[in-house]
């Protein structure tokens, strides 16, 4: 997975110091209620489509772009499930990053679920009661947040 050019340029200035980045995660449900997951190429874990917003890009637009790039599925963002701040992530090269993640509810509008780039090994639709392994630890938490959002219609925030 290639690091975006704007991050490489920032890293030239700040080195390995902590960098806060806007992130997006998508819960895409089809008409049958199945969720769209991708198996990451860096760690083999199945997870919801996600990524980093480009400079100046609207968060919902980032979500649409990331899902299409990673999965081949076009989507419509229908709601904001939650906004949360991750714990610091320390990469193998020493870079430290914190993500402010925007978790969106989405529905598919077209395309075909398929591996769209080198970030994924596989892509597919899954029943929430029959998720593939190995599953990223964040997925059960995110699905629980989505359940709360669907029950209340209220966006969840940190704290």
Features:
3-stranded antiparallel β-sheet; alpha+beta; 6-stranded mixed β-sheet; 3 helices; 159 residues; Nucleoside Triphosphate Pyrophosphohydrolase; 38% strand
Structural overview:
The protein contains 3 helices and 9 strands, in the order αββββαββββαβ. The chain is α+β, with helices and mostly antiparallel strands and 159 residues long. It has a single domain, classed as Nucleoside Triphosphate Pyrophosphohydrolase. Strands 1, 4, 5, 6, 7 and 9 form a 6-stranded mixed sheet that branches. β2 and β3 form a beta hairpin. The longest helix is centred in the C-terminal third of the chain and has 15 residues. This is NUDIX domain-containing protein. Keywords: Hydrolase. GO terms for molecular function: hydrolase activity. It holds the Pfam family NUDIX.
- Report the CATH architecture: Alpha-Beta Complex
CATH topology: Nucleoside Triphosphate Pyrophosphohydrolase
Q: Please tally the β strands and state the result.
A: 9
Q: Please tell me how large the radius of gyration is.
A: 15 Å
How many H/I helices?
3
Overall residue-averaged pLDDT value: 96
Oligomeric status of the shown chains?
A: single chain
At the fourth level of CATH, the homologous superfamily is Nucleoside Triphosphate Pyrophosphohydrolase
Strand content: 35-45%
Content-based structural category: alpha+beta
Name the helicity range: 10-25%
**Count of distinct structural domains:** 1
